[in-house]
Amino acid sequence: MEEVPHDCPGADSAQAGRGASCQGCPNQRLCASGAGATPDPAIEEIKEKMKTVKHKILVLSGKGGVGKSTFSAHLAHGLAEDENTQIALLDIDICGPSIPKIMGLEGEQVHQSGSGWSPVYVEDNLGVMSVGFLLSSPDDAVIWRGPKKNGMIKQFLRDVDWGEVDYLIVDTPPGTSDEHLSVVQYLAAARIDGAVIITTPQEVSLQDVRKEINFCRKVKLPIIGVVENMSGFICPKCKKESQIFPPTTGGAELMCQDLEVPLLGRVPLDPLIGKNCDKGQSFFIDAPDSPATLAYRSIIQRIQEFCDLRQSEEENLINS
Amino acid sequence: MEAAAEPGNLAGIRHIILVLSGKGGVGKSTISTELALALRHAGKKVGILDVDLCGPSIPRMFGAQGRAVHQCDRGWAPVFLDREQSISLMSVGFLLEKPDEAVVWRGPKKNALIKQFVSDVAWGELDYLVVDTPPGTSDEHMATIEALRPYQPLGALVVTTPQAVSVGDVRRELTFCRKTGVRVMGVVENMSGFTCPHCTVSPGGCRGTEAAPDRWGPWVALGSLPSPRSAPASSPGAAGRSWPGSPGCPS
């Protein structure tokens, strides 16, 4: 019996099935036989597919309910305001797909064409894909174990016909498990620009977000920065600020200093955000002057700057 | 060959309650904590099993971070909060060498640990075992329900918030419960409203739960969030505020 859990070495590692932590794992025999050692051909196929996608951004958090999907949706809306920019939003939360609701696309279905699955378009330049579009009823539950979820993510990356895309935003479920490992693994050859990590100010979120930051470092995923969401509440009547989730341990700012990651910004809690998400509309249209809108816009700009810098660094590397 | 779970370790538990939500961040761990504290206040012995392996929140909820799990002759001894052993805890959080260490496991490995948590923790005699779960309807949930099935859990409390995205996930969670044969004791709507402490206005929030059908069972709406001046349960070691017992729980 294990005293302390050690990480799974990975089905494709040399230690697969042989490591001390493999004892008791149901897949031990399979891994030890070397079945996991062959690289998945889908990785190359996805690399080819992703050649038409300029920038890939993952939106992560160790913690649930901090606003990953809300942020992903509004990052997409914000970037798509430039009609010349093509945006793709991919929702890989298989069990709890929130993106269709937030983007006002509930009830839409996915269509197949000769070149693969067609995303559902909110605007001409904003396409969306989610498992939510594959369910026939809002009551349908996706009760899948890890391997089946991984297969779905592979299909999303390989079989969706995104076309020419400037930004692919990937919204993830909370945690550091199958979905996260799979998306990083499948996009390994295609180069992810980086991850935006969402948190709320309280310690119970930060403790999970620190784990997520460590996960990113472990899998060598660049971190664009951290967004502190629900950072203060501005009363719409008296305009005074109160802290619904008090940053008793210094909030995201102190965590970012300690872990040396950039704090991209703080978004205050505006009740209109939730209302607009419920209606499936962009919050920016309903409340263009809200402090939350201004915060979002500043964060989006920093993300664009990060991606542009990475692109020019790579071009310099190629040309040198 | 894997031995069948010894009947000993769960045989002394009178009632098992699962706390579920399709949605993350709605307050499952907070509600689990408050429920345990309320039951203790009513004189019961309570255990909490935290099967959220990626984001274990229960140790911090009770100010028990850094406590270690020890072995005893019947398996793993849970972490006791007091000498009377009125509340006992088990979480992967107690097994990590460092608190920021990420548990980066795929499904099969998570399933194996959850089976151990169910069969190898020496809970002793408990009135209630509250099982706090991560969001979703996946490996952890299936492993937990399969492992607990022989012990006939009382049922599940499903937690949501008023937003439509939460309610959407609750619908899926209720389908999950139906398909896996878990009785839903009721739905708890958390974070139902907020009263500004400066001007006492309650700004209108989302109303996704107003359309909840009766077939969802008894509904408990937890009222306004506490004023920011009082410590919410998510602060370390906060004593639980008094909380009415869920109508579904037998006395």
From TrEMBL, chain A:
Compartments where found: Cytoplasm; Nucleus
GO molecular function, one term: ATP binding
Keyword ATP-binding attributed: yes
Residue positions binding [4Fe-4S] cluster 2: C235, C238
GO cellular component, one term: centrosome
Free-text cofactor note: Binds 4 [4Fe-4S] clusters per heterotetramer. Contains two stable clusters in the N-termini of NUBP1 and two labile, bridging clusters between subunits of the NUBP1-NUBP2 heterotetramer.
Superkingdom: Eukaryota
Entry-linked InterPro entries: Mrp-like_CS, Mrp/NBP35_ATP-bd, NUBP1/Nbp35, P-loop_NTPase, YlxH/NBP35
Any GO BP annotation: intracellular iron ion homeostasis
Keyword annotations: 4Fe-4S, ATP-binding, Cytoplasm, Iron, Iron-sulfur, Metal-binding, Nucleotide-binding
4Fe-4S among keywords: yes
Entry binding sites for ATP: G62, K63, G64, G65, V66, G67, K68, S69
Pfam families registered for this protein in UniProt: ParA
Required cofactor(s): [4Fe-4S] cluster
Residues noted as binding [4Fe-4S] cluster 1 in the record, renumbered to the chain: C8, C22, C25, C31
UniProt record similarity statement: Belongs to the Mrp/NBP35 ATP-binding proteins family. NUBP1/NBP35 subfamily.
Subunit text: Heterotetramer of 2 NUBP1 and 2 NUBP2 chains. Interacts with KIFC1.
Function: Component of the cytosolic iron-sulfur (Fe/S) protein assembly (CIA) machinery. Required for maturation of extramitochondrial Fe-S proteins. The NUBP1-NUBP2 heterotetramer forms a Fe-S scaffold complex, mediating the de novo assembly of an Fe-S cluster and its transfer to target apoproteins. Implicated in the regulation of centrosome duplication. Negatively regulates cilium formation and structure.
Protein name: Cytosolic Fe-S cluster assembly factor NUBP1
Organism of this sequence: Macaca nemestrina (Pig-tailed macaque)
Taxonomic classification: Eukaryota, Metazoa, Chordata, Craniata, Vertebrata
Gene: NUBP1
UniProtKB/TrEMBL annotation, chain B:
InterPro entries reported in the protein's UniProt record: Mrp-like_CS, Mrp/NBP35_ATP-bd, P-loop_NTPase, YlxH/NBP35
Broad class of the protein's primary localization: cytoplasm
Location of this chain's protein in the cell: Cytoplasm, Cytoskeleton, Cilium axoneme; Cytoplasm, Cytoskeleton, Microtubule organizing center, Centrosome, Centriole
Keyword check for 4Fe-4S: yes
PROSITE patterns for this protein: MRP
Listed Gene3D superfamilies: P-loop containing nucleotide triphosphate hydrolases
GO molecular function: 4 iron, 4 sulfur cluster binding; ATP binding; ATP-dependent FeS chaperone activity; metal ion binding
A GO BP entry: iron-sulfur cluster assembly
Iron is among the record's keywords: yes
Functional description taken from the UniProt entry: Component of the cytosolic iron-sulfur (Fe/S) protein assembly (CIA) machinery. Required for maturation of extramitochondrial Fe-S proteins. The NUBP1-NUBP2 heterotetramer forms a Fe-S scaffold complex, mediating the de novo assembly of an Fe-S cluster and its transfer to target apoproteins. Negatively regulates cilium formation and structure.
Protein name per its UniProtKB record: NUBP iron-sulfur cluster assembly factor 2, cytosolic
Organism expressing this protein natively: Theropithecus gelada (Gelada baboon)
Gene behind the chain: NUBP2
